[in-house]
């Protein structure tokens, strides 16, 4: 079955929302295959966010992702890549739909980067690439 990489980003961990986010994932019926607390170094984040290198939010994004631990989750299930992104909601937490993780728990804090609580891989190729970066 399909797998995806989910991250509870530093804002989600710091705000104590890991359990609430995991509860939604489990209630949906996806399977936790592996889970770990990670404090990524810059090199790991440069690999993970390679597609965003050079964008205005890239440096603030890396700084934010180094500001505290994230929870990395290897998640499995039929169509889990699309399904988790649906649970997460759209990137901007202000416009993310209520009922989604970002829509219910996130908002715009006026910072240089959107602190939107979670990451989810956006394709099978991304998932395979990102799972190799976060899980050895
Ligand atoms: P991820 O699941 O985290 O990859 O989110 P995404 O796929 O919805 O967004 P994307 O991959 O385009 O961007 C990665 C991360 O960069 C986002 O989750 C935000 O934290 C941040 N980001 C993306 N676009 C913007 C933007 O236009 N402005 C700001 N300030 N931050 C952004
Ligand atoms: Mg993305």
TrEMBL record:
SUPFAM superfamilies: Nucleoside diphosphate kinase, NDK. The keyword Magnesium applies. The active site is at residue 119. Keywords: ATP-binding, Kinase, Magnesium, Metal-binding, Nucleotide metabolism, Nucleotide-binding, Transferase. It comes from the Bacteria. InterPro entries: NDK-like_dom (IPR034907), NDK-like_dom_sf (IPR036850), Nucleoside_diP_kinase (IPR001564), Nucleoside_diP_kinase_AS (IPR023005). ATP binds at residues 9, 57, 85, 91, 102, 116. Residues 1-136 form the Nucleoside diphosphate kinase-like domain. GO terms for biological process: CTP biosynthetic process; GTP biosynthetic process; UTP biosynthetic process. Its EC number is 2.7.4.6. Its cofactor is Mg(2+). It is an enzyme of class 2 (transferase). Signal peptide: none annotated. NCBIfam families: PRK00668.1. Belongs to the NDK family. This is Nucleoside diphosphate kinase.
